[in-house]
Fold:
Amino acid sequence: MLPLRPSRWLALPDTLHERIAPTPVPDPVLAAWNPRVARDLGLPESREAARPLTALLAGNVVPAGVATLATGYAGHQFGTWVPQLGDGRAILLGELVTPHHQPWEIQLKGAGRTKWSRMGDGRAVLRSTIREFLASAAMEGLGVPTTRALAITTSPEPVYREREETAAILTRVAPSHARFGHVEWLASRGEHETMRTLVDHVIEHHSPSLLARPLAERHAAWFEAVVTRTARLMAQWTAVGFAHGVMNTDNFSLLGLTLDYGPFGWMERYEPGFICNHTDHGGRYAFDQQPRVGLWNCVRLGEALHPLVDEASAIAALERYRATYEEAIAAAMHGKLGLATQHLDDIDLVAEWFALLERTGADFTRAFRALSAWVPGEVDALRTEIPDHAGLDAWLVRYADRVAHEPRSHAERHAAMRAVNPAYVLRNWVAQEVIVAAEDGNFAPLATLLEVLARPFDAHPEAERWGHPPARDSAPVVVSCSS
Ligand code: AMP
Ligand code: MG
Structure:
């Protein structure tokens, strides 16, 4: 049994949660286990040793003395206000105190219906569970803030989407799953005191340094911190070529974590307007729209927080978003180009690099990785990635000139670049390959891919294939909100 303690949400007013037990599934199997997450939680690292937890992670047993619950929230979905969403299929089991004395929430996603399930079945299919499991590990490996995924528990229980599939339950863990939508929900219901309690609770547990601020400033300072974290997160997504796909305010974390992986995609061919979500016809959440949408979401949060944060303070915090994003993205791009110093013309150098990638349809990840090994005169690897050789050579003249003014040697620069430009991201075709094997009962490729994504900056000769875009003649993998 896990040494769980009751969720801190239980101390919050009842309107925020429903006490609900998970719905059991038949014949659960612990199909995947993330040893790094397990270690961070103080749990056994091997899946074998974790097997006794299967019934618990399937939602089939609930530890004595622990009340499980689902939380209520609202949100703006594709720009439209939806007054009630809530956890329709995610049930908080309780909390585990890590060896570093941090309480982490343990949530079962796909654990059955709650009062917020609306027309849904409360379940998740294996395919979407694998995608979230891998994406959280990939983000962790890339150093991008994210919720984490400890385990996948499968069951033969049928789940109906476009076709019949089977159920799986994801064990998701995070210091908190609190969302922008929780605050919006309370605001729309006029429950200002409950909102204050929630925000104070989040501050106390997740931004305790703000407790030193006078009460009158505390909420504004916290909002500013959320805006800052969101702006930085958007820059981190941009830097690794990640598109979230469904940046609704209910999928935005008050802790600045990447949350709710659905039809996400890592960009392969560089295309600023890349749309990963098949159902996002208007491209609202296209790759290059993400920084703007991050701000839009923060504005919605600021509006919801009106009872706690006065308009002038909220606007001041929001006005800093852009500078925070620009500073973060400039630092990230300097890192990706291997520049330890700053120069006025760097912005043009970066813009021309991206123009070259866009014009040639180069693979975002591979192009940066190839650049991370470039020395004057050795252009083969880059030429493989960037077919416009004349354009590449012209850009390299400028780049060579620029790196000549750097204090670092080529070797030092390469090492620094290889630590920020991954060789591996979670490509849709790779995820799909692993999903197809898992649907056939073979979880070995999933475990192998997990190890690769956990160390995406290292070479993995055995998985070299997974570092490439899909074969030209392969059918595109279509991902949408249905999961
Ligand atoms: P998502 O697209 O996963 O962010 O979900 C949006 C909303 O729909 C959230 O309130 C979810 O809890 C809910 N939801 C998604 N899928 C299901 C499902 N199969 N059953 C019940 N609720 C669901
Ligand atoms: Mg969601």
The mean pLDDT is 96. Residues 250-251, 260 surround magnesium ion (ligand 2) (CB under 6 Å). The first strand starts at residue 17 and ends at 19. The CA atoms of residues 107 and 367 lie 38 Å apart.
